[in-house]
Amino acid sequence: MRFENLDLNDNVLDALYDMRFDSCTPIQEKTIPEILNGHDVLGVAQTGTGKTAAYLLPVLSKLDDGGYPEGAINCVVMSPTRELAQQIDQAMQGFGYYLQGVSSIAVYGGNDGNRYDQEVKSLKLGADVVIATPGRLISHISLGNVDLSKVSFFILDEADRMLDMGFADDIKAIAKELPQTCQTIMFSATMPEKIEDLAKTLLKNPIEIKLAVSKPAEKIKQSAYICYETQKLGIIKDIFKAGDLKRVIVFCGSKTKVKQVNSALQRKHINSGEMHSDLTQEERNDIMYKFKAGQLDVLVATDIVSRGIDIDDITMVINYDVPHDTEDYVHRIGRTARADRDGVAITLVSEEDQFYFQQTEKFLEKEIQKNKLPENLGDGPEYRKQGKPNKNNNSAKNRRRKDRNQTSHKDKKQHCHQKNNDITERTSNPQNKRTNPMYRDHQYEGKKTNENRRNKKSSEANKNKVRKEQYNPNQENTQNRNTNAQNRSSNYPKPKRKGNIEGNFKKRQNSIKDNKKQNYNAKQNKKVAPIQETTVTKKTERIKGFIKKLFGFRK
């Protein structure tokens, strides 16, 4: 179906014509009419199927038609990551190029102070469309920078991703700020139970639109290495030795692995960069710009790059870890072989990830080629069918117990069970307390315990008495201690004290004052040393005598 056949605004159609968008994708064909009719929609489709245009085009056409308050926020789009929020904002600017009076702002964390001030101004003035990450929008709501009482459209993009990142409570808190008449649209790549529960709480009589998960392109050459965890870095280094590879993405399951792999590649003088959530927004933008411009050959990243980011000319994708969800595997390797190009996808399968890799093979309905390990790395584990790994049985404590064959804890448990059984057999005999031997034994044991307690108390009291006699100066034993001290110090003469302590202190102060006065007087009365006669003084005396003779001065 063509966009012209849909009931879209003329300004929106002009923008699509300039962008050379003619025909609709299946998700766009099914969702755009329902959103235009005002229904809540729950769409399940993969990334790359045109979901962004599926909800932006009808919302923009309705906003351009009018009937919505000015100077207020009319649409809120939630995004799990900053990169996806930026991409939605760029699409918004393209689709709304010919729209007058429709503004938008992307709100996400990791920016500087100037960007934050710009967000606050736009939110208070009332941007028509706000594209935000959950955490950033919650912070603006708590500070009173946002008024969501007049919102007409609430859109959740990549809802399953947001729930996996732990934003369920934030989404519910944001939904409470919205009016009840708000139209809610939710898109997700998967449909787990969490999404169903969230849809029940947010959506009202939604229309469900589900598309089958598309499989990877046939031009992607898929292969795998069955290896141990310690052999993965060696395999990656061997892959890069084989030839000059550029524009390669290495996907890792955690941030720590991303840092380890990137540092290992840089030590081998490979031009690589890392991409994960610990980086600031400026660092992310810088790395993505360098990778797109060809300044970086390899990008080591988490699943941030697997969804919602368009990067062309990717020659190879390496899965350092096997994703636990088969659709995530499709998203990862879907970064390559775009625009009818060839691509390579290599997966490193450890012994623990064999179950998840077998699930992907079932989903793809084909067996992926297994490559041989390099000779310098040795042999890998055996590839066999395995059940789903249990996290509890795979703990470090259980592994140590299996390795060391520790069975002492089992013997202790058996001993305790036998003791409990003996006690139950003895107490199960319904007899009188006096005739019951168990009661008599307990009574005798109780007497024993009381005697032991008394003995302990008496012994502790004796110890305390001894301590008091040793350390209390009021006791008689202190006399002996004092005599011993006197005998020890008899060899040394004792200083003689005159008067009381206060008198001695005053005398000492007076003596200090007297010493100060004496020093001062000595300085004042100090005589200057006589100057020795020199030739200069003798000449002056001769001159004086000559002058006196001239003028007749006599004695």
Question: How would you explain this protein's 3D organization?
Answer:
With 555 residues, this protein is α/β, with parallel strands linked by helices. It has helices at residues 10-18, 26-36, 51-65, 82-95, 113-125, 134-143, 159-164, 168-176, 193-202, 232-242, 255-267, 281-293, 326-333, 354-364, 396-404, 408-427, 437-471, 477-489, 501-524, 535-551, and strands at 41-44, 75-78, 104-107, 129-132, 153-156, 183-188, 207-210, 220-226, 248-251, 272-275, 298-301, 316-319, 343-349, 369-371. Helices cover 49% and strands 11% of the residues. The strands form 2 sheets. The chain has a 7-stranded parallel sheet, sandwiched between helices. Strands 10-11-9-12-13-8-14 form a 7-stranded parallel sheet, with helices on both faces. Helix 5 (113-125) links the parallel strand 3 (104-107) and strand 4. Helix 3 packs across helix 4. The radius of gyration is 45 Å and the shape is extended. The chain starts with 9 loop residues before the first helix and ends with a helix. 28% of the residues are buried. Mean pLDDT is 79; it is low at 395-410 and 429-445.
Task: Please tag this protein with its features.
3 domains, alpha/beta, 7-stranded parallel sheet, 555 residues, DEAD/DEAH_box_helicase_dom, Rossmann fold, 49% helix, ATP-dependent helicase, extended, 14 strands, ATP binding
